[in-house]
Design goal:
The structure is a homodimer.
Chain A lengths: L5 H14 L8 H8 L3 H13 L3 E3 L6 E3 L8 H8 L17 H26 L3 H9 L1
Antiparallel strand pairs in A: 1-2
Chain A binds a DNA duplex (30 and 30 nucleotides) through α3.
Chain lengths: ~140, ~140
DNA sequence: TCTAGTTGTAAGCATGATTATTACAACAAG
DNA sequence: CTTGTTGTAATAATCATGCTTACAACTAGA
């Protein structure tokens, strides 16, 4: 099991917007050319990034721009904007409550898995768009 | 996106085997009763745990038993036994190599996401079956 | 006002993963 | 030989993902 490619796609889009700011009009078609995906995928992704307050979109005329500085956009913001991320883990639905293991499995596991979730979030929070831009150049 | 329920199912199975050792014959049907899933799911899961060297299965006669002590079985062993876990993340397939962002996106992201993967693995390695058994009682 | 390019979304489709279920050959113990 | 079990294949239902077509609504400029 893996995450969808939505977060990488969103990051790619944001990096393009930052990189081509002022040089090109970053329309969905233009961006789709760099991504190698359908323009509608770009529009849907941009729509979620807009809802998360990360970008502004010029309706009608076309083009998108960042609403925050690249150093103030974390990968977690991007991730949670495009991915319906509740928990990384899922349980089987109907453990038997009459069995001591079935009764406790959810709570017992959750105690540990929650911290995996938390660490995952913290790590993504510590990666900002600017550091990705920096590595792009090198 | 989430992981499948395979790891929680496998953990549940292993906990039952440890808990009911000597008291009940842990057949796939018996285990399925505690899990609330189909016995075939249990057999397929046990088959993967066996391939990973974690359990022994009595063919024909029925029943499974642990091959390692609960304190020596980590959640990572269980996870990687049942989940085809390469990387947590996936990329879009065809970024444009003529675009500086498209050319670099994979490598630039991978540099950071790899450490998320590593941390994920380390955390699961630090959780053992015995500690889950302990919390079960309380 | 008209035109051209764009966004926002809905709808449909193909594919693959997940889970449940049926079925049955192979096996072991009594 | 019978009974209960494992191992595994096959099927089906459901859902997520990603691609694509289509089209109304919008904006700027001629």
């Amino acid at each position: 099991m893996q995450f969808s490619s939505r977060m990488p796609i969103a990051v790619h889009i944001l990096l393009c917007i930052a990189e081509f700011d002022g040089k090109y009009k970053t329309t969905s078609t233009f961006l789709a050319g760099s991504l190698g995906v359908n323009p509608v995928i770009v529009r849907n992704t941009l729509s979620k990034l807009k809802a998360a307050g990360l970008v502004r979109i010029e309706s009608g005329v076309g083009g998108a721009s960042l609403l925050k500085k690249p150093e103030d956009i974390s990968l977690w913001e991007v991730f949670s904007a495009v991915e319906d991320a509740h928990s990384l883990f899922r349980y089987h639905d109907n453990p038997n409550p009459q069995c001591p293991v079935g009764r406790g499995i959810h709570k017992v596991l959750d105690k540990h898995l929650q911290s995996v979730n938390d660490t995952f979030k913290e790590q993504l929070q510590n990666i900002c768009l600017q550091s990705l831009l920096d590595s792009l150049g090198s």
